[in-house]
Amino acid sequence: MREGESIACHDCGRLHGWHALRVHERARCTRCRRELYRWYATGPAVRPSSMVAVTLGAMLVYLIAQCFPIVSLELSGLSTSVTLLESIGVLWREHMQVIAVMVFFFAFVFPALEFGALLYVAGGLWRGRRVRGFDACLRTVQAARHWAMTEVFMLGILITAIKMTSLARVVPHPGLFAFGALTILAALVMRFEPRALWALGDRYLRKDPYRPLARPGGGALVACHACGLVNAMAPGPAHGQRCARCSARLHRRIPNSIVRTWALLAAAALLYIPANILPVMVTETLGSGAEGDTIMSGVALFWNTGSPGLAIIIFVASIAVPVMKLLALALLAATAQWRSTWAPHGRTRLYRVVEFIGRWSMLDIFVVTLTVALVRFQQLATITPGPGALAFGCVVILTMIASAQFDPRLIWDPIEPNGEHHA
Q: Model pTM?
């Protein structure tokens, strides 16, 4: 980006002038205090060669993690081991196709899309050219990054391994260490922000800057939700107008944000009841018959068997977090609908918390997936998924979509109309 060029805050819509930062500096919004960008997203700190090296390493480790078994169980001379894809296959055969599809996309497809698209773009920048489909690839990275859950899956592996030690001997395999390394590399890849890459492409690959900002006929300034470029809108409705840089459709606010948020919250609240009442797993052991385990009974099992730390983690991720998300999003939607001016900073921080913790509720689904796949000892012990897992997985998806549909700029609109003001 050029010095002084306008950028917009994602959370409140305020416009700021872009300036290069010194090492370890961060730029924050003057109104809501959201971080706009960091020093490594500007200037020489962004090196395409570094992006290629880190992303290529992540892709190679990802392939190792998918090809090798994660852990194995040994019980009475019997042994079982699984890869991620084998675990998904077990779910599919147990008639839990919806859960199988969720795990397939969150732990397999979306990480692959993020690493693959980012490697393709970074390789082009390294060679000094803008690759074909540059904009579509960066939008893919943005979308896949929101849903990729490598770190949540890694925590699910650790919890499953600790849980299984009371049943059988747990033996780690290369897949376990690969997923651990992948979690670290995925955190490093997160430093390469798509919006910074759009700006990098502009700075090094384009000779002519984009048209200067102006308000033709009184039109508004609107930030692109994808690449962040502030566009000068033509007068009239925004429908059909597209970003001058990435060609994404422009809109001043997410269309029907509050209505969609309420609809998704209502569906999630209805499903939350069977998610906690119905069993998420059914255990069949020799001489004991079938016994169902709900989320709360799993928490109690860890607590009573001397693992209070794991009990607290599962309670927070699977019970406290979903309830908090439902209540927080309901509060945000209601106050935005009433155009309340109450505590805008506090409500914006609440939105950021909801956005950050949403993915961690999938922890219990990953634990169920691995447990069902590992405990397949024929007549001795078998665990199958229960209907509660399906309901809980749907609750997680619906609340994540609801948080994505809520537009936080609606919090600030009653305070400063339209939100887009220069600072």
A: 0.90
